[in-house]
Design a protein that fits this description.
Low-confidence stretches: none
Radius of gyration: 12 Å
Order of helices and strands: HEEE
Helix content: 10-25%
Mean pLDDT: 89
Strand content: 35-45%
Largest sheet: 3 strands, antiparallel
């Protein structure tokens, strides 16, 4: 597992995510709303959604 500082850096947008799902549909299970967003994944875990870039 990579260290927490690496993940936080990616979360803040300072570094690129290793995997990025572009234009994904994110469902808010509380309100039922569906939003289009980029979903960033680092070390096999979703770390954020929004305006992210990927490594490749």
């Amino acid at each position: 597992m990579r260290n927490i500082q690496q993940k936080l850096s990616v979360t803040r947008g300072e570094q690129r995510a290793e995997l990025l799902f572009k234009n994904a549909r994110v469902v808010n299970v509380c309100s039922g709303e569906i939003h289009k967003a980029n979903v960033a994944v680092e070390d096999g875990r979703i770390i954020g959604f929004g305006d992210y870039q990927n490594e490749k």
